């Protein structure tokens, strides 16, 4: 600004051509987007605050449910243990959603820290599969190839990437279909792939699904709940490890999601 203040702008640059179509200059339009940026920050702070507040009652509720589960597990009424297990599953889902929003808000305000340590990817993948099978196995999850390699990465955050890719494979494919996860060492990277035989998507959706809040709009996906933040968070986590993440897919045939982490 004239008074020396710095502001955020969005810049459009277009070519100016002469009558022969030769570029003879450029025109620039700068728009002040400070208010839009402030709105973003306010929205993020609000999402962060609400998610944080929602966690407290949810944590107590989960603890109460666990005690109740223990106390009523041997009751004669067969409805009770089943209902409690389903209630627990829903609580877990709600917890995951709230954590997702909390992480988006942390990420955007630069509060996500990557804490790297050495671990074996195979152990992590097996843990995630076991955890998913525990909450009701609806699909066949196969792990035909998993190279035993140590990676230097943030274990918890990579856990959430693998969990997200596997949960999506389950969410977006028919019950009892197969999901295949592999983990291969190449020269410089460790490459993890998650394949499903589900809905799939068009090629241009394969890029956009990593954008914040982006979901594929179709008659098949409309009834599947979600907010489009899982892949956005996963992509950010992988990028902060200097890794790559992408998807290959064919409509109605299935999808394969890949992510890689640099080695050594
Ligand atoms: P959510 O599943 O909550 O919508 P994600 O960020 O995890 O959020 O996924 C974004 C979108 O990408 C989903 O809404 C879905 O349209 C698409 N998608 C993700 N994984 C798959 C998959 N395995 N098969 C087909 N579509 C998928």
Care to describe what's here?
This protein is α+β, with helices and mostly antiparallel strands and 264 residues long. The chain has 2 domains: 39-108, Helix Hairpins; 117-262, Heat Shock Protein 90 (2-Layer Sandwich), CATH 3.30.565. The chain is built from 6 helices and 9 strands. α1 (34-72) runs antiparallel to α2 (79-108) and α3 packs across α4. It is globular, with a radius of gyration of 23 Å. It starts with 8 loop residues before the first strand and ends with a strand. Bound molecules: adenosine-5'-diphosphate. Residues 164, 168-169, 172, 196, 198-201, 209, 215-216, 221, 226-232, 255 line the site of adenosine-5'-diphosphate.
Query: What Rg do the Cα atoms give?
Result: 23 Å
CATH superfamily of the largest domain: Histidine kinase-like ATPase, C-terminal domain
- Approximate shape: globular
Mean pLDDT: 93
Number of domains: 2
End-to-end Cα distance:
46 Å
The biggest beta sheet is recorded as: 5 strands, mixed
Order of helices and strands: EEHHEHEEHEEHHEE
The CATH architecture of the largest domain would be: 2-Layer Sandwich
Bound molecules: adenosine-5'-diphosphate
- Assign the CATH class of the largest domain: Alpha Beta
Q: How do the strands line up in the largest sheet?
A: 4-6-7-9-8
> What is the total tally of β strands?
9
Helix percentage: 40-55%
């Amino acid at each position: 600004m004239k008074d020396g203040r710095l502001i955020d702008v969005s810049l459009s640059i277009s070519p100016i051509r002469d009558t022969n179509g030769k570029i003879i200059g450029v025109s620039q339009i700068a728009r002040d987007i400070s208010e839009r940026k402030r709105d973003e920050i306010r929205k993020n702070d609000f999402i962060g605050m609400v998610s944080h507040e929602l966690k407290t009652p949810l944590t107590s509720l989960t603890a109460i449910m666990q005690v109740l589960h223990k106390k009523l597990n041997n009751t004669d009424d067969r409805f009770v243990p089943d209902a409690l297990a389903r209630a627990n599953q829903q609580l877990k889902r709600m917890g995951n959603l709230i954590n997702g929003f909390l992480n988006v808000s942390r990420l955007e305000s630069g509060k996500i820290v990557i804490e790297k340590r050495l671990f074996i990817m195979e152990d992590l993948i097996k843990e995630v599969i076991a955890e998913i099978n525990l909450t009701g196995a609806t699909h066949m999850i196969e792990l035909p190839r998993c190279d035993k390699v140590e990676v230097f990465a943030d274990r918890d955050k990579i856990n959430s990437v693998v969990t997200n890719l596997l949960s999506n494979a389950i969410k977006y494919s028919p019950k009892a279909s197969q999901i295949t996860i592999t983990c291969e060492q190449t020269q410089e990277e460790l490459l993890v792939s998650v394949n499903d035989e589900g809905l799939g998507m068009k090629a241009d959706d394969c890029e956009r699904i990593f954008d914040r809040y982006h979901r594929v709009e179709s008659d098949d996906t409309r009834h599947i709940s979600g907010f489009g933040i899982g892949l956005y968070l996963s992509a950010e986590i992988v990028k902060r490890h200097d890794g790559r993440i992408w998807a290959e897919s064919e409509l109605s045939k299935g999808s394969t999601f890949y992510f890689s982490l640099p080695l050594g």
